[in-house]
Each structure stands twice: as structure tokens, then as C-alpha cells.
Specification:
Helix 1 packs antiparallel against helix 2. The chain is about 25% helix and about 40% strand. The radius of gyration is 20 Å and the shape is globular.
């Protein structure tokens, strides 16, 4: 009886370790895809890199949301240099859906020592039929170059997987009081991203969100939503948003919340 119990415990431990190893490998492959994407941008140019790493149905914001292949495909190659690297990443328990985020720098001329622009990107990735990672949606938030600082990559810790409902997600996406939690990454134009727990004041709750699209991981434990927003009344700030969601303790919570106002404002 004791031997049987010991064998059962060993099988459970081995199963858990195997699950951890599979997740680590999948997350590493996602981050490596991001780094390869960034390297292609520097070596081949912005347009060429995006056309290579965007999924056929990817959404980008230029500044309005549109099909990425069409948006970048209709543009000439830029002489500017766009560089970035991942600072944080997480992956669904399905191991084929995840997101990355990190700082970027833009140089009008590749030889420029100082960047002319800076910000943080937020990208959701999905594995394709050929098992290659491709970007499903990408949105960036800018801040002054004076705020640039070096980030050290961190991977999200594994959490207990549970499923969320699509209907619940869409209802939460448009409600004024958003379901933040302590570790939610909050992006605002002109400001360096921070965790929700680091905010000195609560995020505005006078924002009207209009969902334009969403996608849920095959495991239904992670998702993204995107759309337009208006702050305050009709004459207030308008723009577009991208939110990444994760199910925690059976409820959808925001993993990342990115608002970008219209450039004309």
C-alpha cells in the first residue's frame, strides 16, 4: 500500500514537472519569435519585418485599426530604424497563444545616436498551422525619450488555468469600471507604463468603450479585446484601445490595458 502511494505521488510530481517544462519551452519560443521580429526590423526595415511576422488577419493601429498586411503592404519602406525588445511575456495554457510587451525606440535615421521617439509596444501572438508564431494584434503607446530606461526581461509566473466565458468578456470590456488587479500593466500616452498597484490615483472611470473585435485563446484562459473609446462627454478625448485579459480565480481580469488617443489631439 505504501509503495502504491509513493508511486502515485511520483507520477503526480513528474506530470507537474513535465507541464512546467512544456510551458517554459513554449514561452521561450514565443519570446524568441519576438526577438527575431525585432532583429528583422533593424536588419531588413520596418515594413519588411512587419510583413514577415504579422499573421494574414493581424490587426495593427495606423492609427486606426486595420489589417496589418494591407496597412504595411501599401506603405513604402521607411528609412527610419525601429528597435525594441521584450520585457515581459505570458502564454496561455494552450501553449499557442500569448502576449509580449516591452520598450521600443525610433530613430529617424539609422545612424542617429539619440532616438527621436520612444514608447512601449503590446503584441498578442498566435501559433499558425505551420507551428510558427505570428503577431495577431499590435498596439504601441509613446512617451518622451527622456523617460527611456533599460528593462530586464521577466516571464509571467504560471497560474492555475481556468476558463472564462466569451459573453462575460464582452460585457466587462465595455463597462466603465474596469476589472484591474495589482499586476495589470497600465499604458497611457505620454507616460511610462506602470503596474496598477503602483498608480497613485485610480484610472478614469468616465470612459466609454466600444468593442470592435476580440479573440479568446483555445484554452479560454486568455483573450484580447480592442476598439474605440471616448473619455467624458462626446467632445472629450477619443482614441483606440487594446486590452489583454487573463482568467484569475475563475474571473476575467485585465493583464494589460492600453489607451492611445487620436494623434490630432
Amino acid at each position: 500500500m505504501e509503495k502504491l502511494l509513493l508511486l502515485s505521488l511520483l507520477l503526480i510530481v513528474c506530470s507537474f514537472q513535465g507541464s512546467e517544462t512544456n510551458r517554459d519551452k513554449a514561452l521561450d519560443s514565443l519570446v524568441e519569435a519576438e526577438r527575431s521580429f525585432a532583429a528583422a526590423s533593424v536588419e531588413k526595415g520596418i515594413r519588411a519585418a512587419f510583413l514577415e511576422y504579422l499573421a494574414d488577419d493581424a490587426i495593427v493601429f495606423l492609427p486606426e485599426p486595420m489589417n496589418g498586411k494591407e496597412g504595411y503592404g501599401s506603405r513604402p519602406e521607411s528609412t527610419a530604424r525601429l528597435s525594441w525588445y521584450p520585457a515581459y511575456a505570458d502564454i496561455s495554457s494552450s501553449l499557442d497563444w500569448g502576449y509580449t510587451t516591452g520598450p521600443y525606440e525610433l530613430r529617424s535615421n539609422p545612424s542617429d545616436e539619440q532616438p527621436s521617439g520612444a514608447g512601449f509596444y503590446l503584441s498578442v501572438w498566435k501559433k499558425q498551422r505551420d507551428e510558427q508564431w505570428k503577431v495577431a494584434i499590435d498596439h504601441g503607446s509613446s512617451y518622451p525619450v527622456e523617460q527611456i530606461k533599460t528593462e530586464v526581461y521577466q516571464s509571467a509566473p504560471k497560474t492555475e488555468a481556468s476558463e472564462g466565458a466569451s459573453q462575460d468578456l464582452q460585457q466587462l470590456d465595455e463597462q466603465e469600471v474596469q476589472p484591474y488587479h495589482n499586476e495589470t500593466l497600465v499604458y497611457r500616452a505620454g507616460q511610462y507604463p506602470v503596474r496598477y498597484k503602483e498608480l497613485s490615483i485610480e484610472p478614469a472611470s468616465n470612459i466609454t468603450y466600444t468593442t470592435l473585435g476580440h479573440d479568446i485563446s483555445p484554452a479560454a484562459d486568455m483573450a484580447y479585446t480592442y476598439g474605440s473609446y471616448t473619455r467624458g462627454n462626446e467632445a472629450g478625448e477619443t482614441g483606440y484601445y487594446l486590452k489583454v485579459w487573463k482568467v484569475q480565480q475563475g474571473e476575467w481580469k485585465l493583464a494589460a490595458h492600453n489607451l492611445v488617443p487620436d494623434r490630432k489631439q
